[in-house]
């Protein structure tokens, strides 16, 4: 009886494990906080296409400038369209009541989006690549990763327009698209769009934990210190035990 209960418990945990890992439909983002040029490009994309609706309220313009090797003047000129003070948090100018009327709810703060979703950065990367035209939706768009999302494809000018392909034709529409095809190209090639989204997701990954960049650089020195300390400890042990032998 005990073995049966244990097996049943394992079977019950399998779906939760799949959810925690992000499932098998996520694409690898390749996001990294080590490439500051990539983070700078991602910040520019975010401020141009996302910041009008989505705040990243846990971040400040001054902190972003310091971490990404930018001057305050560069941030104010190129990455602060709302003209907020450089020491302020990165909120949006949109009134919550207007957002509620336009979108049905206030667009979420994206400070932790790359950490809170199953699959982390891979979820955000896949989401931004999974929009397709859907005339039945109020926004005119839908998403294979997050069906019936109220968010439109704000990057469609870059990506182009994707249309759904259903297995078994239109009769299979109730099961969702089996794949997406590019019906109208955007300003970027598919490879260029992938890189742009990767830069954007890398920036969101950095925003979710800005200290990760410092932790990585400090970690190298910690490893070197431990290696040197281990060597000195070995020499000390050798000296102590020499007379014993």
Radius of gyration: 24 Å
| H and E order | HHEHHEHHHEEHEEHH
Taken as a percent bin, the fraction of beta residues is 5-15%
CATH architectural arrangement: Orthogonal Bundle
Name of the CATH homologous superfamily? Cytochrome c-like domain
Backbone structural class: mainly alpha
Shape call: globular
The strand count comes to 6
Cα end-to-end separation: 59 Å
In the CATH hierarchy, what is the class? Mainly Alpha
Brief overview, please?
The protein is built from ten helices and six strands, in the order ααβααβαααββαββαα.
Describe the structure.
Mean pLDDT is 85; it is low at 6-23. It is globular, with a radius of gyration of 24 Å. It contains 10 helices and 6 strands, in the order H-H-E-H-H-E-H-H-H-E-E-H-E-E-H-H. Strand 3 (131-133) and strand 4 (141-143) form a beta hairpin. Helix 2 (36-49) crosses helix 9, helix 3 packs across helix 4 and helix 7 (121-128) packs antiparallel against helix 9 (190-208). It has a two-stranded antiparallel ribbon. The chain has helices at 2-21, 36-49, 61-67, 72-78, 96-103, 113-116, 121-128, 156-159, 190-208, 211-242, and strands spanning 56-60, 89-90, 131-133, 141-143, 160-165, 179-185. It has one domain (27-208): Cytochrome c-like domain (Cytochrome Bc1 Complex, Chain D, domain 2). It has 245 residues and is mainly α. 27% of the residues are buried.
Task: Lay out the secondary structure.
Blueprint: H1 2-21, H2 36-49, E1 56-60, H3 61-67, H4 72-78, E2 89-90, H5 96-103, H6 113-116, H7 121-128, E3 131-133, E4 141-143, H8 156-159, E5 160-165, E6 179-185, H9 190-208, H10 211-242
Antiparallel strand pairs: 1-2, 3-4, 5-6
Helix pairs in contact: 2-9, 3-4, 7-9
């Amino acid at each position: 009886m005990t073995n049966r209960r244990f097996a049943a418990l394992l079977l019950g945990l399998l779906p939760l494990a799949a959810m925690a890992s992000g499932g098998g439909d996520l694409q690898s983002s390749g996001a990294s906080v080590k490439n500051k040029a990539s983070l700078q490009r991602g910040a520019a994309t975010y401020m141009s296409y996302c910041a009008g609706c989505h705040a990243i309220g846990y971040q400040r313009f001054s902190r972003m400038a310091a971490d990404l090797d930018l001057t305050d003047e560069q941030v104010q000129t190129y990455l602060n369209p709302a003209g907020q003070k450089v020491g302020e948090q990165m909120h949006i100018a949109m009134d919550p009541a207007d957002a509620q009327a336009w979108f049905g709810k206030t667009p979420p703060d994206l400070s932790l989006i790359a950490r809170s979703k199953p699959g982390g950065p891979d979820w955000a990367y896949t989401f931004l690549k999974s929009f397709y035209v859907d005339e039945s939706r109020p926004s005119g768009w839908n998403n294979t990763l997050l069906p019936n999302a109220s968010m439109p494809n704000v990057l469609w000018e870059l990506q182009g327009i994707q249309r759904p392909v259903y297995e078994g034709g239109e009769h299979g529409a109730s099961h969702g698209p089996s794949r997406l095809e590019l019906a109208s190209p955007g300003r970027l090639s598919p490879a260029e769009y992938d890189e742009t989204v990767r830069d954007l997701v890398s920036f969101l990954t950095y925003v979710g934990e800005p200290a990760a960049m410092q932790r990585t650089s400090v970690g190298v020195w910690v490893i070197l210190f431990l290696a040197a300390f281990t060597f000195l400890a070995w020499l000390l042990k050798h000296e102590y035990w020499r007379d014993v032998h």
